[in-house]
Amino acid sequence: MAIAQFVVNGLLVGALFAAVAVGFALIWGVVDIINLAHGEMVMLGGYTAYWLLSIATGTAEGSVLLFLATLPVVIAVLFVLGYVLQRTLVSRVIGTDIFLTLLVTFGISIAIQQLAIQAWTANPRSIQVGFADPSLIVAGVVIPKMKLVAFFGAIVLTAILYLFLQRTRTGRAIRAVSQNPEAAALVGIDVEHTRAVTFGISSAVAGGAGAFIATILNIEPQMGLIYTLKSFVIVVFGGVGSIPGALTGGLLLGVVEELTAGLISSRWTLAVSFTLLIVLLVVKPQGLFGTGADE
Amino acid sequence: MSTKDDTGLLRSVLPPERVDQLFDLCGTHSWKLILLSAVIGALPPVFGLREGYMMTVISEMFLFAILALSWDIVGGQTGYPSFGNMAFFGIGAYTGAILLKDFAVSFPLAVVTAGVFATVFAAIIGLIVLRLRGHYFAIATLGVLLAAQQISRNLEITGGASGKILFDVPPGIVFYYFFLGVLVAEIIVVYYLSNTRFGFILNAIRDDEGKATAMGFNTTYYKTAAWMLAALFTGLAGGAYGLFNTFIDPQTAYNGAWNVELIAMALMGGTGTVAGPVIGAFGLHTIIEYVETAFVGWQLVLLGLAVIVTVIGFPKGVVGSLREYANEMDYYERGGMAATDGAADGTDAATDANDPEVTTDE
Amino acid sequence: MSNTPDTDEPEMTANAADAVLRTEGITKRFGGLTAVDDVDVEVHEGEIVGLIGPNGAGKSTLFNCITGTLTADEGRVTLQGQDVTDWPEYKIARAGLGRMFQETRIFGGMSVRKNLLLAAQEGGADIGGLLRRPDDSLLERTNELLEYVDLGGLADTRAGRLSFGQQKLIEFVMALMAEPELLLMDEPAGGINPSMLENLIDYIRTANDEEEATIFLIEHNMDFVMEIADRIYVLAHGERIAAGTPEEIQNDQRVIDAYLGRE
């Protein structure tokens, strides 16, 4: 029964990993950039929700509805941030050496991280969402209600993104730019703007996921890099262009981490995640060679 | 990327041919220059600088120069920019600390063993990650660094998350000369290699690995050799660092921020050169040291901004940009146009305009 | 598996002595498409052999199978009497196969001289050779070759700064530095202007006469290939449809059809 509990815990958290990874994959696929500051967007999303709630209630506590009400603001703030970052900084290195693009986003990552420490100290924080009856018990498995909310929140974020890309005009423009920027420009798409919008959407989804993460786990200024790397693991597993792949990868990673934590020790979860990354790269190198690494 | 167009003032103050002469001069007297720098580096203690803040700062400058130059062997010379070089440093630091503390090994032996362990580790990891390119290589190396950090955090022998405190620390002057010695040795090795066939092959891998293979080079060997050489020097520095700092834990031994710092140093000085990373390390460390004391807690913000500004405005670094500036004159002066294929003016201009992208892409 | 002696086929032994390159039944498929279909070619010492055919005929794929960049699905490649079919690319190159690429590939970040030195020292892989500085005789040979193609003044310039035509010449002299048993050239005349083309023909001829270079080249420029090649192979839809001297090829009805049918 314990195993079932770990698996359920893993699936609940894994959906959040997946939502973060989907945003990461979006920038990778469309702008051909590995955004090493992606995890910082998760962190900033978490803090934005935290402070909004603090302003509203005086403490970082509140009802589910109040928490959900902060989400549109979080998403808007992070969208603008992502858009501006792409427009002002990242766009300047697109098409140059991959190494330079990595460094720019790495630079953004450490600057934001340190600014966050300056602003909010390095202490972990979390949002307390109140429920009269905090957990469901289904067939002996305990399901905290907030985790369930976060799970569906993450699924909804991912689904909205998916529909947005498939159904809207902007979504089609994004897909066009991802497939062939020159051709997209020829048919009148503003490539620069589209890329910035992509960056903004990616950050917004990451930020939304970050807000949910703040309710079930801790947030702290230095959490970002871990989420970036988890996203990389998930995307490598699921394939760069695939939202269902990312979803599967995220859920799996969540399960692996919870099983590690439950069966071995929670201290080993990160070591396992990062080792998994290296193992994946070893096992699947042929599949990985082509994309982005082509000269 | 834009240094070529707006050089009017620069041209009159410092004409390219002067810069070119300077490079020629440095080239002819390179060994004397290295010797002279080593002697100058060795002087401060002779004139009474034996302890205190300055002593530590200068030792750290040597240390960072070692790390930046090591990074550049693979990142700059071979074109495989690693985000995980600090893994070698951490392996070295823990090897040194464990040998000193738990096995009471002598300092020199501990340091040498640290270097060897880091090199062996690099050989094994290299077989895995050096098969990857681009994004995958960069992230895999970052993954190696973080995995190593996490593993050290969880093992008994490494002291877990609380790390290791070291006692019986030799006087600062020992570290001063140790780091200086390793740095000078590394400069000599890297400079020598850059003029051998081995060095040429590394550059060839950076510029076009497929072509290098087509020319008959088994590039895996050379990449791995370069990677191990980088690990050796980084591991040696790490081996001494535990004692120098009197303390290591997973955060300091596998310091991710340092990893960015040493890349930034190589980049600002000029990747793919010998002087560049060293100059970059001295320069950036001085600035960081200043910011660290004057504006506590803001040094990483500054580092992040410095990296962004360098990458966007100045990706060839100090030495690289100067060399390009000198070389540009060279090209026209020595009949670059005259020797072209007759009516190829158009082609020529086109190649020139595309040039920065061509070189960075390759 | 690379030890299969080539002398299994007695009727070939007369030619085997001077066949630098021989392919037998090379076939390469990509999914459902057969890019190269059962192609035999032979290049003898001292020859210049042309390989022509309409776009998509499989010429570059055949080259890639010979150099080991791709592995043929069927057939053997023999270089100097050695079966090299399953060898890795770098090993085939070291066995004496030089290659010039269609898109011209040189090492843009290195000086012109270093490009040449690198090419020259290709032979040995021992540690001593790796760690020695290039000796005077090599430096002399680099200067000689650069003078030969009128690029003597640019030895210390970064190769990436040169014009396309100059880069092509550099790639050519790099190939000569290596003194390969056989040099494969993929469209050497592509993208260069007519006056340069004249020079290039001279250079290739001289290399063939004086340096005894054996050359196998893909070319689209018919005047060029007819002028320079001793023999020509024609590929269409992956199949070898003709072989012979330039005169024979020019009068071959199937070749004319293949080209006209395409255009």
Automatic annotation (TrEMBL), chain A:
Keywords (A to Z) from UniProt: Amino-acid transport, Cell membrane, Membrane, Transmembrane, Transmembrane helix, Transport
Subcellular location: Cell membrane
GO terms for biological process, alphabetical: amino acid transport
Annotated transmembrane regions: 6-29, 64-85, 97-117, 137-165, 196-219, 231-256, 268-289
UniProt protein name: Branched-chain amino acid ABC transporter permease
GO CC term, one of those recorded: plasma membrane
Family statement: Belongs to the binding-protein-dependent transport system permease family. LivHM subfamily.
Topological category with respect to the lipid bilayer: Multi-pass membrane protein
Species whose genome carries this gene: Halonotius terrestris
InterPro entries associated with the record: ABC_transp_permease, BCAA_transport_permease
GO MF: transmembrane transporter activity
CDD domains with a match to the protein in the record: TM_PBP1_LivH_like
Record carries keyword Signal: no
Superkingdom of the source species: Archaea
TrEMBL record, chain B:
Compartment(s): Cell membrane
Residue segments, region Disordered: 341-362
Membrane topology: Multi-pass membrane protein
GO cellular component, one term: plasma membrane
Coiled coil (residue ranges): none
Membrane-spanning ranges: 56-74, 80-100, 107-129, 135-152, 173-193, 225-248, 260-284, 296-314
Biased composition annotated in UniProt, kind: Low complexity: 341-353
GO molecular function, one term: branched-chain amino acid transmembrane transporter activity
The entry's keywords: Cell membrane, Membrane, Transmembrane, Transmembrane helix
One Pfam family matching this protein: BPD_transp_2
Name of protein: Branched-chain amino acid ABC transporter permease
Species, as recorded: Halonotius terrestris
